[in-house]
Write a structure and sequence with these properties.
With 324 residues, the protein is α/β, with parallel strands linked by helices. It has ten helices and twelve strands. The strands form two sheets. It has a seven-stranded antiparallel β-sheet, sandwiched between helices. The protein has a five-stranded parallel β-sheet with strand order 10-9-8-11-12, sandwiched between helices.
């Protein structure tokens, strides 16, 4: 039951400042990726875009209860899982997190300055601004260096792998997603380009279906491995079958990646069986080694696909921080 909850839950972060056990400022952000990705590797959205109002209310109540129970004076960071308003606290850190400066920039309230004044016993005025007052979106995206790590499997998990990050502001969610993905090195496939989808488990296949439809409508050519090819066909989306790396059959996915016939690879790990691990690893590793953009998370892939299908580079909002 616990593993099922984790697989289907959203991961949410709360950065807050408390004084004498009372929360005086907070910022709630959500991860784009499914739960199970280390917070340092997650793509974080602030303000949250897909949380129930009731979920936000309950998270704020939990934060107040924890701050009071621990008599916190200063900064603290909480990470929780939420599914259908059922909330479970993963951890509470009595310190600032790496997301503190990000949410401070987006909110335009210096939470670290507030926390410092609290810890020094100086007077602090409670901010009047809340996350609901913001009419733009911020995204913090991770930067990876898998190309410099020979034979490393470029897949995200509970261990942190990122070596940097960027913060971007956009007029809306799609705008911010597109900016952040371009900033960490992804490229928008050219019109009519070839996109490989190997979508892993059933949940990820379903998550990517709307994105696949958008790609087809935009004129992109879809290529897929066996299970994904069947799933797309059953749901009315055309794709070309590419065989697994360990199959001595043409057309083979490895040949297409190495010959630069693929412009974007979406490969979602399915399970821990030997064949799945071996084939998935070879696809992911070749994408990195041959400099083909690779996404290994279904929700992030869906967000990126939706963004570049709806917006062109010319439509990205290019503004200074103080213009938002």
């Amino acid at each position: 039951m616990v593993s099922e909850f984790i697989e289907q839950a959203k991961e949410i972060e709360i950065d807050a400042v408390a004084q004498g056990g009372e929360v005086i400022a907070y910022a709630i952000s959500e991860h784009i990726e499914f739960a199970g990705v280390h917070s340092g590797d997650a793509t974080i959205v602030f303000p949250p875009q897909k949380l129930y109002v009731e979920t936000i209310k309950r998270i704020k109540k939990i934060a107040r209860q924890i701050a009071k129970a621990l008599e916190i004076s200063g900064p603290f960071n909480m990470q929780v899982l939420a599914k259908n308003n059922d909330i479970k606290v993963i951890e509470c850190n009595l310190r600032a997190s790496r997301s503190f400066p990000f949410v401070s920039k987006v909110l335009k309230v210096n939470l670290i300055e507030l926390a410092t004044r609290v810890m020094l016993g100086l007077p602090v005025e409670k901010p009047a601004k809340s996350l609901f007052d913001i009419d733009y979106v911020g995204i913090k995206a991770p930067q990876f260096s898998f190309a410099r790590l020979q034979k490393a499997d470029p897949v995200l998990g509970v261990d942190m792998s990122s070596t940097g990050e960027v913060g971007c502001l956009g007029e809306n969610f799609d705008d911010a997603v597109l900016q952040s993905m371009l900033s960490v090195g992804y490229r928008i496939p050219q019109a009519g380009g070839n996109i490989l989808i190997s979508s892993g488990p059933a949940r990820s296949k379903t998550e990517l279906l709307d994105g696949a439809r958008m790609l087809a409508q935009k004129g992109y050519k879809l290529f897929a491995t066996g299970g994904t090819h069947r799933f797309l066909s059953e749901n009315g989306v055309d794709s070309t079958l590419l065989h697994w790396p360990d199959e001595d059959v043409k057309p083979n996915v490895i040949d297409y990646i190495r010959e630069k016939k693929i412009d974007l690879v979406v490969n979602i790990p399915k399970n821990l069986t030997h064949n799945e691990l071996k084939n998935g690893y070879r696809i992911r590793r070749d994408a990195i080694d041959f400099n083909v953009p690779l996404i290994t998370n279904a929700r992030l892939a869906s967000a990126f696909i939706r963004a570049f299908c709806k917006l062109s580079i010319d439509q990205i909002s290019i503004k200074a921080w103080d213009e938002f």
